[in-house]
Amino acid sequence: MTYKPNKLKSLSRLLPLCLLSVLFYGVMAFLTIKAPDIHYTRLPQVTTGQLSKEEFTFFMPEYPDVERTRSILAIPKELYESGKIFKVETKTEYGFTYYYAKQVWPELDSDKQNETYYAVKQGLFGSEHIILTGYEELYDGMEVFPQNLHKPE
């Protein structure tokens, strides 16, 4: 007497394993597609802006009676006094763009200030994106998600 395996029993044993494999690969495909979105939601959400030029009134030492007005790159006093000034740096890797907070220490022109702004002497340029909100818990080199810049692919 020879033993003949029941094909139906053999298939019924494989069915759970096949279903589990299909479910596993389906979940992996979903996570692969959604991974960037999941990653970006876990990053600190910040808003950025560029520094503007503001009008500052000052007197020149050689002409103390003549008041001068000049448009100079300025930083909000509130932001400067917080001690947390970050610019956004970008890095592209493997087809994805990553944004990082880089702490900066701009030098101010102490003679030029108004009610809401300090004049920037050096250390920042007008073209850089400065983090305006969400900087409270940041540290130098931390990855961030700037909400008002283009969303990385």
Q: Which outline best applies?
A: rod-shaped
As residue ranges, the low-confidence spans are none
**Helix content bin:** 25-40%
SSE string? HEEEHEEEEEE
Strand-pairing-aware structural class = alpha+beta
Mean residue pLDDT: 86
Number of helices: 2
Distance between the termini: 66 Å
The radius of gyration is 29 Å
How are strands sequenced across the largest beta sheet? 4-5-9-1-8
- Mind summarizing the main beta sheet? 5 strands, mixed
Give the strand tally: 9
Hey, roughly how much beta strand do the residues contain? 35-45%
Question: How does this structure look, described?
Answer:
- The strands form 2 sheets. A 5-stranded mixed sheet has the order 4-5-9-1-8, with no helix packed on it.
- The protein starts with 6 loop residues before the first helix and ends in a 7-residue tail after the last strand.
- 27% of the residues lie in helices and 44% in strands.
- With 153 residues, it is an alpha+beta fold.
- The chain is built from 2 helices and 9 strands, in the order αβββαββββββ.
- It is rod-shaped and about 115 Å long.
- The protein has helices at 7-41, 77-82; strands at residues 45-50, 52-60, 63-76, 86-93, 96-103, 107-113, 117-122, 129-133, 143-146.
- Strand 2 and strand 3 form a beta hairpin.
